Every structure is written in structure tokens, then in C-alpha cells.
Amino acid sequence: MTMGLILLGIMMLALFFEVGRAAFRGLGLSTIGAFMVILAFAIGIIVPSISFGGVFYMNVGGFILPIIAMFVLLAVLIRNNAVLRGVAAMLAVVAATVGLLLIMPVNNAGMIVLTSFVIGLISGALAFIIGRTRVASLFAVTGGIAVGDVIYCLLDYFVISGGAFTLGRAVVYNSVFVAALFALCIAEIVVMTGKSMGEHRTEKRNLNFEASEDRSFNGKSSDDDYDRFDDELF
User: What distance in Å separates the CA atoms of residue 126 and residue 79, rounded to the nearest whole number?
Assistant: First the structure.
């Protein structure tokens, strides 16, 4: 729980900086909207897990909210005709999550942190490389890790240990936040690199065509880059 709250605190802190606000604008979220989403996940983490029969447990912040976020992002992908890309990225994240949960032990706090970072970094990278957009990447992360957790719990309950069926454990919600942060960081790096290259090309054109005196020499990018939040980033 502590690691998840720290990661959410980092996301909240990022909203005080332009690069953080830009990352959430790229998802179509205002600063207030981003704040409310982060707050919802923070509250979800500290809410006690829902129990059914003492065998089945479901964590609000680690499973229910990521599933809700997945369906919201799916609606955006449908609107932008990018479902196949998002689903492909999600399937890659599902496979990575299940595989890593099977081979990496989580029997102490140190291993939970390590496994969370490994799953988060690999999932975030796969989600962005395949998804190519912020929305597709976040869809892949939230849905992929949650679905991967379901598959792992089924395998663990029926094949491996037969222990309690627990969805949204600490390692899972930590992984979701690590993956989301990593995917958004990659996206912002790609955006800033693209803007820098665009400015360089614009300056070069201005130098080559001296007759275009009324053009802006700087070739600044506008906030429209973030309004088209489902455009391909590379």
C-alpha cells in the first residue's frame, strides 16, 4: 500500500509542473480531472478489500478501478478507431504480467517492490511500443495487468497452491502505477523529441527560403499537440 500511495503522490506532484499537466492533457484530462482520477485511486487503495465467502477477495484500487479505467479508455479507442492497436498492446501486457507473476516470488516486502517495478517497467514499455498513443498505452496497462492478474489467480487457485483468490494485491496495483508512469514518461519524451525535431526542420526551411519573411522563425508548437490526444506519437 505504501508504495502505491508514494507513486500516486508522484503523479499528484507532477500536476504542479507543465510536463505533468501536458501528459494528462494528452489523455484528454484537465488538471482537475487528473486530480480527481488520482484521488479516486488513492481512496481505492485504502478501502478494505471486498470479500466473498472468505476465499475470494477483490481490491477496489488494485482491480475494480483499473477495470473501470480500461472500459473508459476502450470507449475512447472505439471513438478514434484504434481498438486493434490497444487490444494488441493489452494482450502483450497480459502475457508479460502472467509470466512474471509466475516466475517472480512475492513472499516479502522487498520482492513485492522488485516484482512491481519489473512488471511495471516491462508492461509500460510494451504498452507504448505497441499502442503508440497515450490512450492505447494506458488502456493496455490498466486492462492488461488486471486481466493478467485474473489469469494468474485462476492458475494459482486451481493448479498451483489452491490459496485464496485475491484480485488486486499490492504487487498488482503497484505495477499498474509504475507502468502508467513509465508509459506516460516515454510518451512525453517522444513528444518533446518530435517538437524539437519539428522546430529544427522549420528553422531550416526558413533559412532556405528567405522570401517567406512573414513566417514565424521559431516554429513554436501549440497546445493542439495535446488536444489530439490519440494521434500516433512515433
Answer: 23
Q: List, for residues 141-187, the tens digit of each pLDDT value.
A: 999 999 999 999 999 999 988 778 899 999 999 999 999 999 999 98
How far apart, in whole angstroms, are the C-alpha atoms of residue 153 and residue 59?
Answer: 13
Checking if the pLDDT of 18 tops 70, the result is yes
**Overall pTM surpassing 0.70 (yes/no):** yes
Contacts of 199 (CB under 8 A, 6+ apart): 218, 219, 220, 221
DSSP result, the chain: -HHHHHHHHHHHHHTTSHHHHHHHHTTT--HHHHHHHHHHHHHHHHSPPEEETTTEEE-IIIIIHHHHHHHHHHHHHHHTT-HHHHHHHHHHHHHHHHHHHHHS--SSHHHHHHHHHHHHHHHHHHHHHHH-SHHHHHHHHHHHHHHHHHHHHHHIIIII----EEES-HHHHHHHHHHHHHHHHHHHHHHHHHHHHHHHHHHHHHHH-TT-TTS-SS----THHHHSTTS---
Cα three-residue angle 203-205-210, rounded to 5 degrees? 100
Q: Who contacts 25 (Cβ-Cβ below 8 Å, separation ≥6)?
A: 223, 226, 227, 229
